[in-house]
UniProtKB/TrEMBL annotation:
Residues 4-108 form the Oxidoreductase molybdopterin-binding domain. It comes from the Bacteria. InterPro entries: OxRdtase_Mopterin-bd_dom, OxRdtase_Mopterin-bd_sf. This is TMAO/DMSO reductase. It holds the Pfam family Oxidored_molyb.
Amino acid sequence: MHTDIHCVTRWSKLGTSWRGVSLDTIMAAVDSDFAYAMVHCYGGYTTNVPMADLLGGQAWIAHEFDGRALEPVHGGPARLLVPHLYFWKSAKWVRGLVMQKKDAPGFWEQNGYHRHGDPWREERYA
């Protein structure tokens, strides 16, 4: 997949290349009553993401970047990739997703960042 990524600190990287598994494939057997996922990562980081942003071909668990295995410094061996949201939502070192019926803030959201993080709406801070 080729996509642009956008950081909350106002940098973007255009035309990045990724490989991974679509969240649609991973979530196929999960109850559809859930509206949100809390992404849990090694190191204790969490971020909340609406299911509407994870499904429909919009998000992946990525394992390759620019034709090479994803390096640990960039979240390898696997990171969440949600390129249409600010990059803090594309959590590194993913270890699990907890499905939730209600929204709850993750790490950065508890520290003043916007709960959604849409770069086209400038959703940086709460």
